[in-house]
């Protein structure tokens, strides 16, 4: 690898920071890394705040502990790398519910993101079509076929399983709709099985069996005690990178030896020469930067759509809450609220002696952005009213609250997404091998997926510059 290589990481979210840490670990001594972040803070959608004197997440609250192979997830690996391996907390209450038929019913066990391998187990929530999932003598999907999750499940199990289970569970993660989201991108294990198995129940069981066995009672999720911002800060320190906040990169352009960045205001731009660029920003700003580099790639990247959401946190004095971690709300309920988390019930380390409970609601589904365009006070009142109705009892007036809006926060993956991303990366590697893409827009919305995406992009940059110093 070039001695003294200069690498620019554009975007200070968890993908960009994970990339910077990997560069610190794998690039030769003398490599300089600078992280450019347009906003005034690192972390992207990871942000810990405070409501009524208690820490609370204003973005993602936790991450998966295991990856599909059964090892530590990329997020756990990063936490260990930056010295937080012993600071991870796990939920003290894991049971969640779905709001159906005027009440809260436990989410049935044994499903794969709501898709059942045993139809009897979902009977308390939905009535599946039992006569549709027949063996037609061939795999459910062709070798190169991708479909919307909703289309496949509706065809095999009927509408209620989608509307009451699959759609709200996918909506909780992506704020999207099952009828628009790619099976390959959102449920890769089931997609692989569906190219072999002849029934959907068989594909679910095969996907579950292929997953590494988990020790009974082992935690599924984790969060850093003290908040996600602690992980962000630790990653920034461990990377050793120069961090520039409030630094807008307006243009990137290839040069004979690398790249030129145009940074800062139009009237007084700063020109920065680097050897490689790692783009870890959302798809639309990435497309704007790519427009002058590779128009075809820019068009494909810019076509990715996003959903907007808002997170409304209420501090409630001694409310009567069920012993749940939270609940999901199907779209058929007609509420703005699509999910709720009982923070001080779910996370034992957040419980308070004074009985004050922190309850967070997620509002906004794909295509409903207009419903979020109301004042914070009105949004808070709507959430309080809807939560009271969903819980069947009026909640006490909140002592404090907070509204966090995330515009264009969650990428939507239509069928064929993975093939389009692969084509984009292949085109970039062929034309500009020292430019790499990372982030949720390409590789998944979960924290482990973003960490893995950043680390993979870092490895691509190291390889393009001539190899690793490790």
Automatic annotation (TrEMBL):
UniProt KW keywords: Cytoplasm, FAD, Flavoprotein, Heme biosynthesis, Oxidoreductase
Annotated metabolic or biological route of this protein: Porphyrin-containing compound metabolism; protoheme biosynthesis
Record EC number: 1.3.3.15
Cofactor: FAD
Chief subcellular location: cytoplasm
PANTHER family xrefs: PROTOPORPHYRINOGEN OXIDASE
Family membership: Belongs to the protoporphyrinogen/coproporphyrinogen oxidase family. Coproporphyrinogen III oxidase subfamily.
UniProt-recorded name of the protein: Coproporphyrinogen III oxidase
Organism (species): Micromonospora zhanjiangensis
């Amino acid at each position: 690898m070039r001695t003294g290589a200069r690498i620019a990481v554009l975007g200070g979210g968890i993908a960009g920071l994970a990339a910077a840490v990997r560069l610190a670990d794998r690039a030769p001594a003398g490599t300089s890394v600078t992280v450019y972040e347009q906003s005034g803070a690192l972390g992207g959608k990871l942000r810990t705040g405070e409501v009524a004197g208690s820490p609370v997440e204003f973005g993602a609250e936790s991450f998966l502990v295991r990856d599909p192979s059964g090892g530590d997830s990329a997020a756990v690996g990063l936490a260990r790398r930056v010295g937080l391996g012993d600071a991870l907390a796990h939920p003290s209450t894991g049971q969640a519910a779905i709001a159906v038929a005027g009440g809260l019913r436990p989410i049935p066990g044994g499903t794969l993101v709501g898709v059942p391998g045993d139809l009897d187990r979902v009977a308390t929530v939905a009535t599946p079509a039992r006569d549709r999932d027949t063996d037609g003598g061939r795999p459910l999907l062709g070798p190169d076929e991708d479909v919307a999750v909703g289309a496949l499940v509706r065809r095999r199990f009927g509408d209620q399983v989608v509307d009451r289970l699959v759609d709200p569970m996918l909506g909780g993660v992506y704020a999207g709709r099952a009828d628009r989201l790619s099976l390959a991108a959102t449920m890769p294990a089931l997609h692989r099985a569906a190219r072999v198995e002849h029934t959907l129940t068989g594909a679910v069981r095969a996907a579950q069996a292929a997953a590494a066995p988990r020790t009974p009672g082992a935690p599924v999720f984790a969060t850093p005690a003290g908040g996600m911002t602690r992980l962000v800060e630790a990653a920034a320190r461990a990377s050793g990178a120069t961090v520039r906040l409030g630094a807008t990169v307006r243009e990137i352009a290839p040069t004979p030896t690398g790249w030129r960045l145009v940074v800062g205001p139009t009237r007084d731009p700063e020109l920065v020469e680097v050897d490689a660029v790692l783009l870890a920003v959302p798809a639309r700003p990435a497309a704007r930067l790519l427009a002058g580099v590779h128009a075809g790639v820019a068009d494909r990247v810019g076509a990715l759509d996003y959903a907007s959401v808002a997170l409304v946190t209420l501090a409630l004095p001694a409310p009567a809450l069920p012993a749940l971690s939270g609940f999901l709300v199907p779209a058929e309920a007609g509420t703005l609220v699509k999910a709720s988390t009982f923070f001080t019930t779910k996370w034992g380390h957040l419980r308070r002696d004074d009985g004050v409970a922190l309850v967070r609601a997620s509002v906004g589904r794909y295509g409903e952005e207009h419903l979020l365009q109301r004042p914070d006070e009105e949004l808070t009142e709507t959430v309080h009213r809807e939560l009271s109705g969903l819980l069947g009892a009026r909640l006490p007036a909140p002592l404090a609250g907070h509204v966090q809006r995330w515009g264009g926060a969650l990428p939507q993956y239509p069928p064929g997404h993975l093939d389009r991303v692969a084509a984009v990366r292949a085109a970039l590697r062929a034309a500009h091998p020292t430019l790499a893409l990372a982030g949720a827009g390409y590789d998944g919305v979960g924290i482990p997926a973003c960490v893995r995406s950043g680390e993979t992009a870092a490895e691509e940059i190291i390889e393009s510059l001539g190899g690793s110093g490790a």
